[in-house]
Amino acid sequence: MRQAIMTSPGTIELRTVADAAAGPGQVLMRIQRIGVCGSDVHVNHGTHPFVDYPVVQGHEFSAVVEAVGDGVTGIRPGMKVTATPQVVCGTCRPCRRGLYNVCENLIVRGFRAPGVAQDLQVTEADKIVLLPDTFTRSRGHSWSPSPWRRTRAGAQET
After folding, report:
1. Exposed site from 16, 61, 66, 141, fewest CB < 10 Å?
2. Could you report the per-residue pLDDT of 70-108, keeping only the tens digit for each?
3. Cβ contact 57:7 at 8 Å
4. What does each C-alpha distance from 125 to 48, 75, 76 come to in angstroms?
5. In 57-94, which positions are buried (b, 16+ CB within 10 angstroms) versus exposed (e)?
6. Torsion of CA 41, 42, 44, 45, to 10 degrees
């Protein structure tokens, strides 16, 4: 698959890497559109305080489900999705209280973990946010889900 890697501030290399695959409890997404937010601009300029180069940028996106791993329910190929970009530990005090946005070990995809500037991305099924069928590719990438108000697969948004 194609992947855009920012190797240093202002320098992006296009590479071909092995295709991603969904493991148990994971979802493989085909990236459709990527949004560029202010944080991405800071990464490009080398002024973002929480980035490790090289990095695959991108954390606001729209995608279509390509495949699901074993044990995934409520999500199927062809569905329009986005996902929360936060990678949390699940064990620190804030995580145990459900306050994932202030996880003491928070990592955000596109900064300290690979983002979505590639053809395919794998994420955990519980990070998937289903997008309405009426959403266009462009609308989906401009909607940034928060980790504390995500719509779980099969749940109704309130």
Report:
1. 16
2. 999 999 999 999 998 989 999 999 999 988 889 999 999
3. no
4. 29, 8, 11
5. bbbbbbbbbbbbbeebeebeeebbbbbbbbbbeeebeb
6. 120
Contact call for residues 55 and 4 (beta carbons, < 8 A):
no
Question: What is the C-alpha to C-alpha distance for residues 83 and 63, in angstroms, rounded to an integer?
Answer: 9
Q: Quick one: tokens of 41? A: 């601009």
**Residue 34 is encoded by which pair of tokens?**
């990527």
Q: Which pair of structure tokens corresponds to residue 92?
A: 């620190």
Distance between CA atoms of 117 and 79, rounded to whole angstroms? 20
**Largest Cα span, the chain:** 42
Lowest mean pLDDT among 13-27, 67-81, 139-153: 139-153
Q: pTM value?
A: 0.85
Residue keyed to tokens 């493989």: 28
Which of 140, 158, 154 lies closest to 72 in space, CA to CA? 154
